[in-house]
Every structure is written in structure tokens, then in C-alpha cells.
Amino acid sequence: MTRPMRVAVAQMNSVPDVEANLAAVARLVARAAEYGAELVGLPECYAFLGPERAKLALAEPLEPMGPILSRVAALAKQHGIRVLAGGHWERGPDPDHVYNTAVLLGTEGEILAVYRKIHLFDVSLRDGTVIEESRTIAPGDALTVAPMPFGGLGLSICYDLRFPELYRGLVDRGAHAIAVPSAFTATTGKDHFAVLLRARAIESQCYVLAPAQWGRHFGDRVSHGHACIVDPWGTVIAECSDGETVAVATIDPAYVAQVRAAIPCLRHRRL
């Protein structure tokens, strides 16, 4: 049996200072728990957002947990809340590349599910921003849907949002909601972030949970913010403005079923 579940998405401003970032994480997890959320999503790069190669020294394994993830797991256990560590720098077999990994933690701090970002952001934007994730990040190769009280939670990260076939795959694996922890640049975010989130919700007939980075991080790196939750009709039902905060809403599996019954496009697929 599925049931409604109150969820939160966090918005924060990560910098090249792990301790400062983890202090912000502690505040945000506590706030989500105070609002009655059973799950809180942290954005991509939650523990560190700085020069690309610096993340190599911070990367840690998942088993056993390193010091960064252990502290997030302790927060999950302390508050009795599930936490999606939205973009964790995971050590891989290649010393020159890490994984950008979404780690879903349970209420005892245990690892429930893992997703490694598949699509890497290699771009040169008109404002002069140049990001080459593939220089230091290795891509994942598997889709992940985790069981939750409301049904399946599909995992993705940031740039994945531009690849709708990934979300079709998550729906085929039972997703009723999809998480998209992000650090969307200010340049692309103002025009594309909300549009793409709503499109993925509408076409997948899923809730979309979008934790987000906000503000200036270091140098010229600035994130758009506007962490939000979108329902299966494509309506933004909770959204952050500026600053460090959370947005909270309820995922209702009955509403997912209602939308899918009213417009059965997932059953009408021909290709």
C-alpha cells in the first residue's frame, strides 16, 4: 500500500569550504524535519562547490562511509528523516576522476539507494562560463528507482534534466516521483530550469523534487536557485525564493494515479 508523504527540497549556497557547507546542511535538515518532512533533498555539490580538481582530494568511498557522508547520515538518524545527498563526490577506481553520486539515506543513516550522474556538463556559455565536468568526473551507467512510501523515487542529477529518455526509463521502472538535485548556472537556469522541470513532470506524470544551489559560490560561478516541487500536472506547488531555505509539499500517489488515468499517455506510447 502506498500513502501520501511530506517532502522537502533544500536550497543552499555551497562554497569551497566543507565545514561551512555541512553546517548549512545541518540547519536545512533540521528545518525540514521541523516542517514534518519525511524526506529532504540536498542539492548537487552540497558538500563542496569549488575548483574542479579540488574535488578529487575530497572524494570518499560509500562503503565504508567517509567523514562527509557519515555526518549527513548522522543528521538523518538524529532527525529520523530520509536524506537525499544530492551530489556526493564519490571516490572511484580512477584517481583522476570521481563520481557525482546521489545517495539516498534512510532514517537510521543507512544507504537505501545510489545513482551516479550519467550526463556530464561540458559547456562554454555566452557569459564566459566554461565548465568541463568530464575532466574530473566519470559518468555512471545505470538508472535507479528507490522504493518509498508513496511509490518509486527515480534519481537523477542536474544536467540529466535535458535528456527526457532518462526519465522515461525511470517511469518504466516504477517512478511516481523524480528527484533532480541541481546546481544550474544563473545563465541557463533563468530560462530553462523551471521549464524543463515542468516538462519532465508533465511527460512523466510524476512529482519532481528539485533541490538547488543558489547564489555566488566562487569566482564567476553563480547558481540560479529556485528549488521547487512540481506536481504531475506540471504545477509548481512549492518554491524557494532567494537564500538558504527549504520548500515543502506532500506527494500524493492517488493524484499520480488520477493524472495518469485522465491522460493515459504513458499507455498510449507507440515508439
What does this structure look like?
This protein is an alpha/beta fold and 271 residues long. The chain has one domain: 4-Layer Sandwich (Nitrilase/N-carbamoyl-D-aminoacid amidohydrolase), CATH 3.60.110. The longest helix is centred in the last third of the chain and has 19 residues. The model has no long low-confidence stretch (mean pLDDT 96).
The number of domains: 1
Low-confidence region ranges: none
CATH topology: Nitrilase/N-carbamoyl-D-aminoacid amidohydrolase
Spell out the CATH superfamily. Carbon-nitrogen hydrolase
Q: What is the H-and-E element order?
A: EHEHHEEEEEEEHEHEEEEEEH
Determine the number of helices (DSSP H or I, runs of at least 4 residues): 6
Helix content range: 25-40%
CATH architecture: 4-Layer Sandwich
Mean pLDDT: 96
First and last CA, distance: 31 Å
Radius of gyration (CA) equals: 17 Å
Pairing-aware structural class of the strands and helices? alpha/beta
Highest-level CATH class: Alpha Beta
Biggest pleated sheet:
8 strands, mixed
Query: What portion of the residues fall into strands of 2 or more residues?
Result: 25-35%
